[in-house]
Amino acid sequence: MKCKFLFLFLLFFGHQGDAFSLEPSLEQTTEELENKVNRLESQVRHLEDAQTTAESEISQLQESIERNGLALILFGVFCAWWAKTTGRSALLWFFLGLLFHVFSGIALLIKTQRST
Fold first, then answer.
1. In terms of C-beta density within 10 A (0-12 exposed, 13-18 middle, 19 or more buried), how is residue 111 classed?
2. How far apart, in whole angstroms, are the C-alpha atoms of residue 87 and residue 45?
3. What is the pTM (predicted TM-score) of this model?
4. DSSP secondary structure string for all residues of the chain
5. Contact status, residue 73 vs residue 94, Cβ threshold 8 Å
6. In this predicted structure, what is the pLDDT of residue 73?
7. What is the pLDDT of residue 18?
8. One digit per residue, pLDDT tens: the chain, 116 residues?
9. Which of 27, 35, 70, 76 is deepest in the core (most CB within 10 A)?
10. How many CB atoms sit inside 10 A of residue 66's CB?
């Protein structure tokens, strides 16, 4: 019985002594955690700035597509019309006009000059 009591006494007071000896490391741990939190806040701000920049670039791309999309389709239609009047495949030249824009127009001009 005395051994059990002594064991419990040492167990109880032994752990409390360890708690007092850990205080300096707790302060150090608190400082480390504060540093980590500050670094994480900095990273979050950086990511928020990057997201804002990306959203701005995406909106500029969407505006550019809206402005230039109709012009590309009209250029494809023009290439298809021109190819059809010269006896070539209108569907093929429509897609070439969409994909290669100016280059397909130049190719049509060269082919038209050669055939006449």
1. middle
2. 61
3. 0.42
4. -HHHHHHHHHHHHHHHHHHHHTHHHHHHHHHHHHHHHHHHHHHHHHHHHHHHHHHHHHHHHHHHHHHHHHHHHHHHHHHHHHHHHTTS-HHHHHHHHHHHTHHHHHHHHHHHHHH-
5. no
6. 87
7. 47
8. 666 666 666 666 665 544 445 455 666 788 899 999 999 999 999 999 999 999 999 999 888 878 888 888 888 888 889 888 888 889 998 988 888 877 777 877 787 777 65
9. 76
10. 9
Amino acid 45 reads R
Look up residue 58 and give its two tokens: 């995406």
Residue identified by tokens 């051994």 is 3
What CA dihedral angle connects 28, 31, 32 and 37, to 10 degrees?
Answer: 160
Sequence ranges of the domains in the chain: 2-115
